[in-house]
Every structure is written in structure tokens, then in C-alpha cells.
Amino acid sequence: MRQIRSADPWSTFLTSGRDDAAGTGSARFARREPPPEGARRTLGPDPSDACRRVLDQLHAAHGPQTFDQIRYGTGLGLLEIADAVELLRDRGLARVEDGPEEAVRLTADGTAG
After folding, report:
1. Where is the composition biased (Basic and acidic residues) (predicted)?
2. Quick one: which of 39, 36, 20 has its CA closest to 83?
3. Residue 101's pLDDT is what?
4. 25-56 burial string, b = 16+ CB within 10 Å, else e?
5. How far is the C-alpha of 84 from the C-alpha of 40, rounded, in Å?
6. What is the model's pLDDT at position 112?
7. DSSP conformation class of 26
């Protein structure tokens, strides 16, 4: 049996995935099909809870918050926050501002609480 040794651990990882016949390596990370047109990702058990927590964090901050600040303040994961912000943006309650870091800000509709 031949052992592959490399100073670069990524190249070792990537080459180990070429033995798909054995069901190892990249076979474990098979590509998923993209969602159908118009389908949304789901937040998890309760998307309204994530939206409420993000809104509460933005109200408490009295100003824009980066995704990391929201993550720290709510305990949510970045994907949950991104999905919640997308829902809030669709409802007209929040907007995302570009800058050195993207920040989420409440709109005039989101400030009435």
C-alpha cells in the first residue's frame, strides 16, 4: 500500500477524495442539487423566533449592527441570521448597508415596536 505524504495537508485531503469507489473522501461531500426556482431555505424549527431575536438585538443597539455583532448578541448562527435578515428585508423592516463590513439597520417601519 502506498502512502501519500505531503507538506501541504490540503493537497493530501483533496487527493484522498479521488478514491470514490471505496466510498471515502469527496464521496462524503457529494454536491447537493440546487433548490428549485423560487424555493427558500428554511431557518430551522422556528424562523419567527430568529426574526424576533434579530429585531430585539437591533432595537437594543439603537443603530446598525454587523452580522458578527448580531451573532454575539443573539446566539444565532450566521446562516440563521442571514435568513432572518432576508425575511425582515422582504417585509420592509430592515435593510443591509454596504461598507467595510455589511451592517443591518432597522427601517422606519422596523423602529415602531
Report:
1. 30-40
2. 39
3. 87
4. eeeeeeeeeeeeeeeeeebeeebeebbebbbe
5. 12
6. 44
7. G
Determine contact, residues 67/84, Cβ cutoff 8 Å: no
For residue 85, the one-letter residue type is V
CATH of the domain at 78: 1.10.10.10
Global pTM exceeds 0.70:
no
The x, y and z cell numbers of residue 34, run together, are: 440546487
Residue with cell 422582504: 90
Residue 10, domain extent: 1-34
Per residue in 37-83, pLDDT tens? 655 555 455 778 999 999 999 999 999 999 999 999 999 999 999 99
